Amino acid sequence: MRISMTGRVKGKVALVTGGASGLGKSTAELLVAEGARVAVTDIDEAAGRAVVDRVNASSAASAMFLRHDVTDEDQWKSVLRDVTESFGGLHILVNNAGISLTRNVEELELEEWRRVHAVDLDSVFLGCKHAIKDIAVSGGGSIVNISSIAGIIAGHNMAAYNSAKAAVRHLSKSVALHCARKGYNIRCNSVHPAFVDTPILDEHRERFGAEEALRKLGRQVPLGRVGLPVEVAYGILYLASDESTFTTGSELIIDGGISAM
């Protein structure tokens, strides 16, 4: 699925965390197709470099890869320095890296709780905190934080994930208000997908098998199927582009109708 290329982020520089696969990969590819130069970061170096190689094969020098543990503050500083030095600035940050864990509050171990919050929430805080300066210096832009429908609707067996993703939603609003108050010309919004066919569903695939897992999850969605990564990437593209210059502190729900029930 691909809609016409119109250069919607032409001339902009973007950083996409967790860009080696799934939603991050689709977002990075779409941003490049629409005119941006993109830094893809991930802990999976081989997969991340493969994404960048494919992108650069069709659009030379449009993407770079950086290994990046998003829970490490020093790595955030290093990555941002490398991006701004290589591409001359930063306009878009997509905080996409994340993990999922199916555990209810009684089953959940403290270390599991901390790990989910470190990857899904602390990384978003660190990205916002340290990227704001670079985006402001570049003339402003957009921070897009990937939350989840699980950040709005809770589940009995998603205690840590619900908590972290709900916090991303409110953190995004706080960042948006801070940037507006400071006059930085930086927008910040959160995106809330439902089930999307990415590696984050691997836990379900291992339990039920690939096809049955997608069928079972799809039955929970009013549209009758899980989403495609590119369907969420187009929402991210809107928030990253200048089409959304009056949109900040908001959440974009892309859930096939789940939250309407």
Radius of gyration: 17 Å
Question: Largest beta sheet: what is the strand line-up?
Answer: 3-2-1-4-5-6-7
- How does the overall form come out from the CA principal axes? globular
What class would the helix/strand composition place it in? Answer: alpha/beta
Report the end-to-end length measured between terminal Cα atoms. Answer: 27 Å
Provide the β-strand percentage band. 5-15%
CATH superfamily: NAD(P)-binding Rossmann-like Domain
CATH uppermost class: Alpha Beta
What profile does the largest beta sheet have? Answer: 7 strands, parallel
Task: List the helices and strands in order.
Answer: EHEHEHEHEHEHHHE
For this structure, the quaternary state is single chain
Instruction: Provide the domain count.
Output: 1
- Helix fraction, binned, reads 40-55%
Poorly predicted regions are none
Per CATH, which architecture?
A: 3-Layer(aba) Sandwich
Number of DSSP strands?
Answer: 7
Output mean pLDDT: 95
Could you tell me the CATH topology label.
Rossmann fold
Would you spell out the secondary-structure blueprint of this structure?
Layout: E1 13-17, H1 22-33, E2 37-42, H2 45-58, E3 63-67, H3 73-87, E4 92-95, H4 110-137, E5 141-146, H5 159-182, E6 186-193, H6 202-208, H7 210-218, H8 229-240, E7 251-254
Parallel strand pairs: 1-2, 1-4, 2-3, 4-5, 5-6, 6-7
Helix pairs in contact: 1-8, 3-4, 4-5, 6-7
